[in-house]
Amino acid sequence: MKRERNNCGFSLMEVLLAMATLSIGMIFVAGVFPVAIHFSTIATERTIAAVVADEAFAKIRIYGEVDLDYQNWLSAEPPVGCVDFSELVTVEPDEFAYPSDPCNNILRTRYCWSALCRRVGTTRLVQVTVFINRKIGSGTMYHGGTEDRPIPVPVGVSGSVGSNVLAIEAGKENLINDDYTIVDDLTGRLYRVLERYRPPNADTIVLDRPWDVDSPAPDWVWVVPSPVNGGRYPCLAAYQKVIRF
């Protein structure tokens, strides 16, 4: 008797189904790597930002003690708002670079910092807001003049006290965008921009919390904008500390 032949192979349809299933699985696996790299980069930069902030506060204390009376910034007059730290004291531009190294030129560094100072009442306490920024690249033009690094610039705003919606002054709408950090000039309070409306209401922003009812009506805020020609938002984080001089 002839034995029946055993068909042990796979049909073409089974092979195609197996390849399709494997391909779909590989697509999902491959999609995980960019996300993992993105969040790993964010975690790394946040860690670096914290280290840069500690170094910045230390330098501010050192230079602030040396130039304590420069422009009378700790006078007995009541506080009038925030002032860029580089306008209060004499600091070499390379001191704003990170890592801190005598040979680390601000033009070649990848990270840098800037700071705003606001006197607290008539005391010797100063509220310092430090912005940790990434450099986009050499030769990049930033808002605020001829600076070689991102710096906070004042932007006029208006709105109702107790509301989380503000209007940006005409011509400066593009300086504030989604997920930016802004600082109230008079009080130094930090706010996060949740959204900037699209045209025709591009001058309207929504904050993460209402404007403090104990604060005056908003006049202007400070923000680190994107480069002049557009690009990635340079500000990694903003830190605040009250320093006694």
List the helices and strands and how they pair.
Blueprint: H1 12-66, E1 83-84, H2 85-88, E2 97-98, E3 111-119, E4 125-134, E5 153-158, E6 165-168, E7 181-184, E8 190-196, E9 204-207, E10 220-223, E11 235-244
Antiparallel strand pairs: 1-3, 2-3, 3-4, 4-11, 5-6, 5-10, 6-9, 7-8, 7-10, 8-9
Key attributes of the depicted protein:
about 25% helix; about 240 residues; alpha+beta; Elongation Factor Tu (Ef-tu), domain 3; 5-stranded antiparallel beta sheet
Describe the model.
By secondary structure, the chain is of the alpha+beta class. The protein folds into two domains: 13-135 and 237-245, no CATH class; 153-223, Elongation Factor Tu (Ef-tu), domain 3, CATH 2.40.30. The chain is 24% helix and 25% strand. It has helices at residues 12-66, 85-88, and strands spanning 83-84, 97-98, 111-119, 125-134, 153-158, 165-168, 181-184, 190-196, 204-207, 220-223, 235-244. A hairpin with a 5-residue loop joins strand 7 (181-184) and strand 8. The protein is globular. The termini are far apart. The model has no long low-confidence stretch (mean pLDDT 81).
The largest β sheet comes out as: 6 strands, antiparallel, barrel
Q: Radius of gyration, Cα only, in angstroms?
A: 26 Å
Kindly, what is the distance between the CA atoms of the first and last residues, rounded to a whole number of angstroms? 106 Å
Q: What's the arrangement of strands in the largest beta sheet?
A: 5-6-9-8-7-10
Mean pLDDT: 81
Q: Based on the structure, what is the oligomeric state of the protein chains? A: single chain
The shape, in one word, is globular
Order of helices and strands: HEHEEEEEEEEEE
Judged by helices, strands and strand pairing, the structural class is alpha+beta
